[in-house]
Amino acid sequence: MSAALNEAPNCPRRYPAKPTDVYLFGTCVLDLFDPEAGVSVVSLLEREGIRVHYPQDQTCCGQPAYTSGFPDQARAVAARQLPLFAGDWPIVVPSGSCGGMMRHHWPRLFADDPALLPLATSIAERVLELSEFLLHVVKPRWPRAGAAERVVLHTSCSARREMNTHLSARALLAQLPNLEVVLQDHEAECCGFGGAFSVKHPELSAAIASDKVDALEATAATRMVSADGGCLLNLNGTLQKRGSALRGEHLASFLWQRTQAPA
Amino acid sequence: MNAPTPIRFHANVRGVLANPVLRASFRGAMDFLMARRAAQFPAADAFEALRAQGEQIRQHSLARLPELLETLEANLQRNGIQVHWAETPLQACRLIIDLATRAGGDLVVKGKSMVSEEIELNHALEAAGIGALESDMGEYIVQLAGEKPSHIIMPAIHKTKEDIARLFADKVPGVDYTDSVDELIQIGRRVLRDKFRDTRVGLSGVNIAVAETGTLCLVENEGNGRMCTTVPDVHIAITGIEKVVARLEHVPPLLTLLTRSATGQAATTYFNWISGPRRAGELDGPREVHLVLLDNGRSGAYADIRLRATLQCIRCGACMNHCPVYARIGGHAYGTTYPGPIGQIVSPHMLGLEATQDLVTASSLCGACGEVCPVKIPIPDLLLQLRQQSQGNAAAPLLPGAGRGRKALQSISYQLFAWLYARPALYRLFSFVATRLRAFTPARQGVWTGSRAPLRPAARSLHERMKSRAGESCA
Ligand code: SF4
């Protein structure tokens, strides 16, 4: 269904030169449920000669509270993250939705706090979602081709509409030889997760997820790839429940596994 | 008109989701409308430029709303259009009933007007012994079925052609079952045209009101709107106070955004400029023209600068067509006059936040609505603000019913979340324990596992794995 597809070109965002050091904001979802993806980010970046700094005191961007109407609680959590990223390195975030929270909503959360606003603004400017960082800043050379495979890409709504990075993941995958990347029907539509939405409106969330999973399965891809841990929790959970063989993988894990040189 | 009890949204949703026919037909209809719109905006940058202009026009109009309304009133009066102000739906209904009674009408023929739905005019007229006949085909179908519109542009979009065929055969005297769309339209036309001739009062909505010229603009495709506004003796127009723009030159950009976004048309078949009653020497046109300007919560939205953008809306319906929630449940489940994303942000001003507490949460915040909105209303941001008010976490001014969406368990969860996630050492301990307990992951995790496998923590958290790599490169 091409009607719903937003093929708008990426915002002309100015990217920095390839840095020697970056911060990694690992996100709370990957921390608990898919740490392999976080480690893969580090492996990918280190292979390109970039030092990755992972502040051990990081927890969460505060989004769950923020989107549920609890800004004070979100602010309390976000405020603890700010000083951890006070240097001037770029901050790589392997998630469109956490990236969107940090880039767009942190400056709003601290708009009335003159002590923290400058840092929140500086962080907002330095946040880069993993796929845009790889595509536009790192420009990696993939050392290994990988076997022929067909994968389907799911792009999160935040990546698409807040970060404008829905095309960078696709462009990255297009660089890999032997890889066929297909798009699912209603590709631009939400997977139905929406954080607290999935709990407040479980029937709606399930109905949307079920249609998304139908569309993913119909592509006959062997794997689904996504740059967002939240969507992956929802979609993998739905796929597993219905007994499907299809599984989604984080973009970072997929890229690392596919391109690392044989041991 | 603050409805005190919450709309039974969850029950409504379960009802529709259980109906596969309805679901498939909504999905198909929304796909069709999305494709029509997309064909009208082939170039992303041209669309962006146009909608930036639309946004600016609407924002500037709202910034000067009180002044523009005064100018509008003065210029309408100069043109011979009588202006009436209604703060509540009840007042608006009374005004219209008075006008219709004075005109000696026992029937009002109506063009499409969502504001008349908002004030539930048909019921009020009926109670006063005055009939109402919807002349827009979609509205006519919905009225025959005794239902409400399920979409602001396509009121009967929830009906299949077979539904309509059965309805006509049932309810229209002398009609046999036919599911030919052309024949169905002809049947509807015939019934309606007969009525126009001898009805004394016509009612319509307004798409845009121009302050400097005192002109009312009305778009439509069927010609019934023109009949309603020109054939009867008395024409009553009704609209919300937000629909005003300053100058005539503001109309074309809004109009082109409206028709392209709504039905995917570069222009509608009819565009009516209403600038007054029949003048001396003119052969046709109504003898009286009235405009009822309705507030119904709009001045509250105007007064709260955080929510004012709600009033930028030009009622194109694109946000519904692109909404993953609306596409699955249609309009009736929302239980409000305006369904879908626009309904979720505007209804709290009309009904209060207590009634609409389950509507403001019924969005994954995917942003599709804000992306297509032709006047760039940041719908997800407005929903966030409404959620804060609903939870009692926002500063004044507050909507009626603010704080009523607060549930003890949820508030405690977020307090606990903030407490734990703002204490890094404690959080690491928590994640250490959670990962070590993965073997004991419960098979049932509340509503999550209703449609998904259980969430299971990894064997070791990213924090731990990064710590063991720390010797290599990490700070
Ligand atoms: S909110 Fe925007 S998209 Fe929705 S009906 Fe209003 S103008 Fe159209």
Topology summary:
The complex is a heterodimer of chains A (about 260) and B (about 475).
Chain A (H helix, E strand, L loop, with lengths): L20 E4 L3 H6 L1 H13 L3 E3 L9 H5 L3 H11 L9 E3 L2 H14 L7 H10 E3 H9 L10 E6 L2 H5 L4 H9 L4 E4 L14 H4 L1 H17 L4 E4 L2 H13 L6 E3 H9 L4
Parallel strand pairs in A: 1-2, 1-3, 3-4, 5-6, 5-7, 7-8
Chain B lengths: L8 H9 L2 H21 L3 H20 L1 H14 L2 E6 L2 H14 L4 E4 L3 H5 L2 H7 L3 E4 L2 H8 L16 H11 L9 H17 L3 E4 L3 E3 L4 E6 L3 H7 L3 E7 L3 E2 L5 H12 L7 E5 L13 E7 L3 H6 L14 H4 L4 H4 L10 H12 L16 H5 L6 H12 L17 H14 L2 H13 L11 H4 L10 H8 L6
Parallel strand pairs in B: 1-10, 2-3, 2-4, 4-7, 5-8, 7-10
Antiparallel strand pairs in B: 5-6, 6-9
Helix pairs in contact in B: 16-18
Unreliable residue stretches of chain B: none
CATH class of the domain at 64-296 in chain B: Alpha Beta
- Strands ordered across the widest β-sheet of chain B: 1-10-7-4-2-3
Care to count the β-strands of chain B? Answer: 10
Gross morphology of chain B: globular
- Report strand % of chain A: 5-15%
Largest interface: A-B, 82 and 74 residues
The DSSP helix count of chain A reads 13
**Helix- and strand-based class of chain B?**
alpha/beta
- According to CATH, the fold-level topology of the largest domain in chain A is Rossmann fold
Rounded to an integer in angstroms, the radius of gyration calculated over CA atoms of chain B is 26 Å
The major β-sheet of chain A equals: 4 strands, parallel
Distinct helical segment count of chain B: 22
The count of domains of chain A is 2
- The CATH topology of the domain at 64-296 in chain B corresponds to Rossmann fold
Q: Name the CATH class of the largest domain in chain A.
A: Alpha Beta
